[in-house]
Design a protein that fits this description.
GO cellular component, one term: transcription regulator complex
Main location: nucleus
InterPro entries: Mediator_Med23
Family: Belongs to the Mediator complex subunit 23 family.
Strand order of the largest sheet: 1-2-3
Radius of gyration: 39 Å
Keywords: Nucleus, Transcription, Transcription regulation
Largest sheet: 3 strands, mixed
Helix content: 55-70%
Number of helices: 68
Oligomer: single chain
Length: 1310
């Protein structure tokens, strides 16, 4: 109320004042033509008016709270009075009065400018007011802080839309006045506001340069947009559209997908900031999404890329469309290949994957099933599809059979239109051969029809559509078969039972019969008893599981019903307290069912709970069951599992995240061996995935929990291999436990010392094999995990060598087991027979004789034996051996072990992964031991089912060289072929392995190719830098030999490979960068080509002139994009220590900005500290260039890069944000004009850093910004402030937007 009264009073006073100024005496009016005005009197009169107006705007300043609000309201009132004047002289006087009070800081200059431009009467038809307003704004705008300039600019551009398209001669001055104001705001030398503010507003209001407000401003706006294209280039990832990820969550390639984020509505890259990116950069990335969708086990990555969350039901239309396109493309390829090769069969695994994708994304409502069906109809209309139509119907049947009972019929009715399109035949199709698994696909259309008709019957809906003629015979066959109760249904070699399950799974009248046949084949109601290994152990049921072909032929709904039946049977056994073990057929069948991703979350948890209730947790169920259960659910943590944990499972963003809040759930409270295995796996995972955090080890709480439960110490040679953070934890937490234990057994040791070593080992061997005191796997595990230094460790290896090599008890078992068994157990029907035969020949006793009741039944063993249990122990034996420095006494131990029992690696479930991890983690230990690497690869991979066939031909020949010959030095052609094979696999044009990915150690062909390629490269008998250099030369030297269209894909392939190798391999890139920066081209740039054109990958690739700068940039971007964060955080140190001494020219600085520009966002998201260090390093580079160059041609462009991106990344974005605090640095205080262009490079950098501190006081900070920004901001400020003071005035002028120092001080610094 007080403010309103004050405004009214001031408005009255201003109105009176306004009238006084315009008042003309009668005599003056009468004799106007004859009067001569005194300039002195006029000036005195004007001065009086100025003082009076100044007084009016200052009255009551101390009496009214928020007086500035009164001023602004009254100022608008005065402007409204002024806007009605058309007298030139009066307008001139009034504008001069306003200019005076603003220049005297009585009123806000920004408020005055905004009041003038926002007046309703501001029209080009009011010429005097229009010209006076824009002229005054242009004169006064230098006193407006830059955020106010931005608002004035927006108002001026909006006013241009009021101008007519065709200007009359009398209207040109008005247009010119507006143009001059906008031109002045855009003037880089005037530097009224950061250029990014301008481009941000332009592109926000007029995206894609469309619909400029007026043709007169079009050159200004488009010219300013074009001036930012170099900036957009510097932050754009070169060759972005050709970069593809490897879909893998188990190793180094399984890092976060932040670099692959897409905007769900448009499928464009998620790009920060408004910049004029190239059209290619802004195109929908359908190719990328479709590539990921095609990869098996990719659905989690798809969800991450599109920001989809299972708990939020959100339809994603672009995902829906790409799923349809993916299936339609598969149909067309199948149709084409089937036409060329009549006997062609599309791999069933491909359609299994497509079906699983469709089920998942529709089930979680990311896609709409009815809309997808309608889109199928639209896409397939007009196309002749006959060979692949059944596969589409099979995929649709998977979803329909499982969801039709819980959804309305209307959701599925669009499928009926597909029959008209795909099955137009006027004659019935013949019944397919039911002995062929393809018959289930061929009968899928009639199965869908049966489900739809059953649903219509239940809902009481009449479907006025007859059965398609083409399906008549199929329908009659199924109806006859299901109604004929004799003979009884049995599971044989045909697929009749599967067909009935698929067709009638929603019909409880007919479904129990075929499902009963399946269940009966698994337990036979315990009418059949099967002998199990052990004593008095018998299982109730048959031994032969359901073949994978039968399971593949069942729909998802039928598989879930089978799982439910198995669970029901187990519950029944529990309730009746049956003494019979589960049938081997049932256990193995359930194990096989778990590989189907579409049901992995629907039946596994209940079954595991039942297993825990029914049996002792130490029971060894089925090896495949345990392995798959663990990999899919991570609910069972039994001793052998710890050894099989992958690298990503033990990362904070991986499966371990669930245990970090409660580490006791994964830490053993009593088993030192389990905890040691956990720590060793953790060390390997942190090293390989680059999980060492700059801010401190994230795993410290987990390690301390282990120390509390079982205090551990480690030998020095093991600690040397640990990541620095983990090693530091153990070095700072010593324990005396090991010493205490040694003292306690000292007396026992003296007694043993009286005997010879051979007799001691012989006694141990008898304890293991003759008296069964302890098994060999546990003994060696305990022995190898003890804290023994090098001399003691040598004795341990000697004992192991004698037990495994000299005494043949274990070797005999290994030889027979390897000879008689296959690791591809899912293909076998007689596994139990072989399993039982082995245990009969080599019966295992799990306790010393006499301690067990000879008549008591032992627990059932379904899969395991001493050979399989020893595999993870053997893995650790090799690792411990590699940690010890090469010694003569143990030099041959590992060779002997590998020769004697290395064939056991035929059954390793992750041989390539294990070998990759070993070569990666122990790279420093193995760098000069080429013969040992050769031996490891030959044995571990050579023992597998596929042998060495997945390696390149030259590598196979090298491994087959006799003895320890390691003289092979590959040429560049070898590396080119290696990259070519990997790229072809990545693009889906070939595959190193052609088999069932459900039972493979890798999820898809790309992941397998990456690991096998890296393993091969790490096995080469050449230094790591040589390998890395040759991989880089494949692009930089060998590009001329490549087809022009594939270079981008090769660059992506080399980037993936190098970032998956140890540090010495990819560090060569930094050497190449230094070599390039120090080349004559960059130290004395004298080309007539613009540097930005020279550094542009697309332009250089198209013109083939001076391609090295652009190709090296593109390759660097590929490597940095695929790199883990540990590889990125070294950039600041690299710039400071290596690059800074070399950079003297502006072109060198521009190339460095191109290099690091695309990585800024990721550093901000994952390691802000590194971004701060990078900022300081860039300022130092700028300072150096500023001193060395007299003229800087690209100062504004570099500044345009550094201000928005460093500012936006550190502050969370500036587009549209307003600071409630006025900026005290004005243009008028820095009007020196020498705009040398290099300083602006880091002025933007400075902006982000100094404002880091200011952000703590801003309302828009919210909870998004961690307090660490404040501390790092202060830390960086102290370094940068000194650099800014030594820059040339032109740079300091531009840095005024971000510096914390007074502009007067900076302006006087040379």
């Amino acid at each position: 109320m007080a403010i309103d009264i004050a405004v009214q009073n001031m408005n009255v006073q201003l109105t009176n004042f306004f009238n006084d100024v315009l008042k003309v005496e009668a005599i003056e009016e009468a004799f106007a033509p004859f009067m001569v005005h005194s300039k002195e009197n006029e000036q005195n009169k004007l001065d009086a008016y100025k003082e009076e107006l100044r007084s009016l705007f200052s009255n009551n300043q101390g009496e009214v709270q928020d007086f500035h609000l009164v001023q602004e309201a009254s100022l608008k009132h005065f402007v409204s009075l002024l806007s009605g004047q058309d007298n030139t002289k009066h307008c001139k006087v009034l504008f001069s009065l306003l200019e005076h009070v603003a220049s005297e800081n009585v009123i806000s200059t920004r408020s005055l400018c905004e009041a003038l431009l926002s007046a309703d009467q501001l029209s080009y038809k009011s010429k005097e007011y229009w010209l006076g307003s824009f002229s005054l704004v242009k004169r006064m705008i230098t006193n407006v802080e830059y955020k106010g300039v931005r608002e004035i600019m927006k108002m001026a551009i909006e006013k241009s839309s009021c101008l007519p398209a065709t200007l009359e001669e009398s209207e040109v001055p008005q247009a010119k006045a507006l143009y001059e104001l906008v031109e002045y705001i855009f003037d880089r030398n005037a530097c009224l506001l950061p250029g990014y503010f301008v481009i941000n507003e332009i592109l926000k209001a007029y995206p894609e340069n469309r619909h400029w407000p007026h043709w007169m401003l079009a050159p200004l706006l488009s010219g300013f947009v074009d001036s930012f294209r170099p900036t957009a280039q510097m932050v754009s990832l070169m060759n972005r559209t050709n970069l593809l990820p490897v879909v893998d969550q188990t190793g180094p390639s399984g890092q976060a997908v932040s670099g692959w984020k897409l905007e769900p509505p448009t499928l464009r890259f998620s790009i920060k900031g408004n910049l004029p990116y190239t059209n290619e950069y802004l195109q929908p990335q359908s190719k990328l999404l479709r590539y990921v969708l095609e990869q098996p086990y990719s659905r989690d990555m798809v969800c991450s890329m599109l920001g989809l969350q299972k708990q939020h039901k959100q339809r994603c239309m672009v995902l829906e469309n790409e799923l349809v396109n993916l299936i339609v493309d598969a149909m067309e390829r199948h149709e084409e290949r089937a036409s060329d090769s009549p006997g062609y069969r599309h791999p069933p695994s491909h359609w299994q994957h497509l079906s699983a994708q469709l089920i998942f994304f529709v089930l979680f409502q990311f896609s709409s099933f009815p809309h997808m069906v309608l889109e199928f109809i639209n896409k397939l209309s007009g196309k002749k599809i006959q060979k692949a139509r059944d596969h589409l119907m099979w995929a649709l049947l998977q979803f329909i059979s499982g969801s039709i009972q819980t959804n309305p019929l209307s959701d599925f009715l669009p499928v009926l239109k597909l029959y008209d399109l795909l099955y137009p035949e006027r004659e019935p199709l013949p019944v397919p051969d039911v002995n062929d698994p393809l018959s289930c696909h061929q009968m899928a259309p009639v199965c869908i029809w049966i489900h739809l008709m059953k649903k219509a019957q239940l809902e009481g809906v009449s479907v006025h559509r007859p059965l398609p003629i083409a399906l008549k015979t199929h329908h009659e066959y199924l109806q006859h078969f299901v109604l004929n109760n004799s003979p009884p249904l049995t599971v044989g070699t045909d697929y009749r039972v599967a067909l009935l399950c698929n067709a009638f799974s929603t019909n409880q009248e007919y479904f129990p019969r075929p499902m009963g046949a399946l269940v009966d084949s698994l337990h036979a109601h315990q009418k059949i008893q099967t002998q199990m290994p052990g004593t008095n152990c018998v299982a109730g049921g048959p031994a032969t599981p359901l073949p994978m072909e039968i399971l593949d032929a069942l729909t998802v709904h039928a598989k879930m019903s089978l799982i439910h039946s198995i669970a029901t049977h187990v519950i029944k056994l529990v309730q009746t307290k049956s003494t019979l073990a589960l049938a081997p057929a049932l256990v193995e069948t359930y194990s096989r069912l778990l590989v189907y991703t579409e049901i992995e979350s629907l039946g596994i948890k209940g079954f595991i709970a039942i297993v825990y209730i029914t049996f002792n947790p130490t029971i060894e169920y089925s090896y495949s069951l345990i392995s798959i259960v663990f990999l899919l659910s991570h609910k069972l943590i039994i001793p052998s599992f710890i050894f099989g944990l992958g690298s990503m499972e033990l990362q904070p963003q991986g499966q371990l995240s669930r245990f970090l809040s409660e580490p006791k759930s994964i830490v053993s409270s009593e088993s030192e061996e389990l905890n040691r295995a956990l720590i060793l796996t953790l060390a390997r995972a942190v090293h390989i995935t680059g999980g060492e955090s700059v801010s401190g080890p994230w795993y410290k709480e987990l390690v301390m929990c282990v120390q509390t439960s079982t205090p551990l110490t480690w030998p020095s040679h093991t600690l040397q291999c640990f990541p620095p953070g983990l090693a530091e934890i153990y070095n700072n937490s010593p324990t005396t436990l090991a010493k205490d234990v040694k003292q306690q057994i000292k007396g026992v040791g003296k007694n043993w010392a009286k005997s010879t070593v051979n007799r001691c080992i012989e006694a141990v061997n008898d304890l293991i094999w003759k008296y069964h005191i302890f098994p060999i796997d546990r003994f060696i595990l305990c022995l190898i995990l003890r804290n023994h230094e090098e001399r003691e460790a040598q004795v341990c290896f000697l004992i192991i060598q004698f037990l495994l090599v000299r005494y043949t008890d274990f070797q005999t078992r290994v030889t027979e087991f390897v000879h008689d068994n296959s690791p591809e157990h899912w293909k076998l029907s007689n596994w139990h027979e072989k399993h039982l035969a082995f245990h009969s020949n080599y019966q295992e006793t799990f306790a010393p004789e006499g301690l067990l009741d000879q008549n008591a039944a032992t627990l059932p063993i379904y899969f395991g034996n001493i050979c399989l249990r020893f595999l993870p122990v053997f893995d650790m034996v090799i690792h411990r051996y590699l940690e010890i420095a090469p010694m003569v006494s143990v030099a041959r131990t590992l060779d002997l072990l590998l020769d004697s029992i290395g064939s056991l690696y035929k059954f390793h479930d992750h041989p390539v992964t294990y070998l990759y991890n070993t070569l990666h983690y122990y790279e420093r230990r193995l760098s000069e031991r080429h013969a040992l690497k050769k031996k490891l690869v030959s044995v571990i991979l050579g023992s597998g089912v596929h042998g060495l066939s997945h390696l390149s031909q030259p590598m196979q020949e090298y491994l087959n060289f006799p003895g320890d010959d390691t003289s092979w030095i590959p040429e560049l052609d070898y590396y080119a072929k290696i990259v070519h094979r990997f790229v072809q696999t990545l693009l889906g044009k070939e595959s190193i392995f052609d088999g069932d990915w459900r039972f493979h150690e890798f999820p898809n062909a790309s992941a397998h190719a990456l690991y096998i390629t890296c393993t091969e490269l790490m096995s080469l008998p050449v230094p790591a830098p040589t390998v890395g250099s040759n991989l880089i030369d494949v692009i930089l030297r060998g590009h001329s030999a490549l087809p022009r269209g594939v270079l981008g894909s090769w660059i992506n392939g080399v980037g993936l490979i190098l970032t998956s190798l140890p540090e010495p391999y990819w560090q060569v890139l930094f050497d190449r960068i230094l070599e390039f920066l120090d080349s004559p081209l960059m130290t004395s740039y004298n080309l007539n080509v613009d540097p930005f054109q020279l550094f542009d990958f697309s332009k250089a690739h198209n013109t083939l002139t001076h391609v090295q700068p652009a190709y090296l940039l593109a390759l660097s971007h590929s490597i940095l994009h695929h790199a883990v964060i540990r590889q990125l955080v070294g950039l600041p140190q690299f710039l400071k220590e290596k690059v800074c001494p070399l950079v003297k020219t502006e072109e060198q600085l521009l190339w460095i900005c191109h290099l690091i520009g695309p990585s800024l966002r990721r550093l901000h998201a994952e390691c802000t500290r590194a971004l701060m260090d990078l900022t300081v390093a860039l300022y130092q580079l700028l300072q150096q260039v500023d001193k060395c160059q007299q003229v800087l041609r690209f100062m504004d462009t570099i500044c345009d890069l550094l201000y928005p991106f460093l500012f936006s990344h550190l502050m969370g974005g500036i587009g549209g944000q307003k600071n409630s605090q006025p900026d005290r640095f004005h243009t008028s205080s820095l009007m020196s004009t020498n705009t040398s262009s290099a300083a602006v490079v880091l002025d933007g950098l400075r902006s982000c850093l100094i404002l880091v501190r200011q952000i703590c006081t801003l309302d828009w900070m919210n909870s998004r910004y961690h307090i660490k920004y404040m501390f790092t901001g202060y830390m960086v400020e102290s370094h940068v402030e000194q650099i800014i003071r030594m820059l040339r005035p032109a740079l300091q002028k531009r840095l005024r937007f971000i510096t914390h120092s007074n502009t007067e001080e900076l302006g006087g610094t040379n």
